[in-house]
Design a protein that fits this description.
Shape: globular
CATH superfamily: NAD(P)-binding Rossmann-like Domain
Structural class: alpha/beta
CATH architecture: 3-Layer(aba) Sandwich
Order of helices and strands: HHEHEHEHEHEHEHEHH
CATH class: Alpha Beta
Strand order of the largest sheet: 3-2-1-4-5-6-7
CATH topology: Rossmann fold
Radius of gyration: 19 Å
């Protein structure tokens, strides 16, 4: 049966998988970190290969980031998670925030938060010319937040591998969620280094660590983005750039699945992330995603079986997002 479901737009898409996986708000006092405490999902690879742990690198600069006085560029800043970052960055004393969005008509309300410090930029992250124009317009950036994302087609079948008429939409999802943030990092990391150092933050999702069948192409793209982020982190290890990935759980936005009640606000999410950056975290568990990892690791097969059974019995539905 062919069924049409409404897409979750550019902002707030990261929380779809988190809500579907049952990731609720964090416990009081919880802060960002990695899924296993000090070690993330990819930790322990050296031990598994029988290799000794590497000693601390002698030339490695400190990796912490304080938002006060920073110059930030936030993609997908006109609503949801992106808007939450703009609000918190301003509250924490950012010198300037470049707020980007595909449609310039959606940016005046963001500028109105602080016309002296918020600079609007039109940016479709998949457009090479617009990416280069953004880098030219924002040469003083010290913090890049790659937030903009595309969850996939409004037609549910097109977000899956076998039911899709073609994989063209899946390629668009991958281009938006993985390759475009990589391209932006390629443009902005040299600027950040030239400006004395800073941070690159890639907004991922718990959907990077399991497949949400209703949004298979989205999960694929976020899993790829997690590895892409690790590659960026390795390449910048000897530079004054903190590269962090945010594993977002449940953020309440207008892109949230129908009936969602548990979650954090975009502002609370941004507060968690910026607190973790100040501690130098490279894998930030935000918006209840720590509980998700606990359930996943307790019984991975049972977790996957639960996701698949829910897919057939009660698939995730998204409220109209126009």
């Amino acid at each position: 049966m062919k069924r049409r479901e409404v897409v979750a737009g550019l902002a707030g898409a990261a929380s779809i998988a988190g809500i579907a996986a049952g990731a609720g708000p964090p416990a009081a006092g919880a802060v960002g970190g990695s899924p296993g405490g000090s070690a993330g999902p990819g930790a322990g690879a050296g031990d598994a290969a029988g290799l000794p742990a590497a000693p601390p690198a002698p030339g490695r600069p400190p990796k912490r980031f304080d938002a006060r006085g920073c110059v930030a560029l936030v993609t997908g800043a006109n609503r949801g998670v992106g808007l939450g970052f703009v609000e918190v960055l301003l509250a924490r004393g950012a010198k300037r925030v470049y707020a980007t969005g595909r449609n310039p008509r959606n940016l005046p309300q963001v500028v109105a938060l602080d016309p002296q410090r918020v600079v609007p930029l039109t940016l479709d992250v998949t457009d090479e010319a617009q990416r280069r124009a953004a880098a030219a317009a924002a040469p003083d950036v010290t913090l890049l937040i790659n937030n903009a994302a595309y969850p996939g087609s409004e037609v549910a079948a097109e977000r899956r591998m076998l039911s899709a008429a073609s994989l063209d939409d899946a390629r668009r999802v991958m281009d938006t969620n993985c390759w475009s943030p990589a391209e932006l990092a390629r443009l902005f990391v040299p600027l950040i280094v030239r400006n004395g150092g800073g941070a690159v933050v890639n907004i991922l999702s718990v959907g990077a660590y399991f497949c949400l069948p209703e949004f298979s192409s989205y999960s694929i793209s976020k899993a790829a983005a997690a590895i892409m982020t690790a590659g960026l982190r390795a390449e910048t290890d000897r530079q004054p750039v903190l590269v962090s990935q945010v594993v977002t759980g449940s953020v309440l936005t207008r892109a949230s699945p129908v009936g969602t009640r548990n979650g954090v606000t975009p502002v609370q999410h941004a507060e968690e992330v910026l607190d973790a950056l100040a501690q130098g975290e490279t894998e930030i568990l935000a918006a209840g995603s720590r509980g998700f990892f606990e359930r996943l690791r307790a019984d991975p097969k049972a977790f996957e079986r639960g996701v698949i059974d829910r897919f057939f019995s009660n698939p995730v539905r998204i409220a109209p997002y126009g």
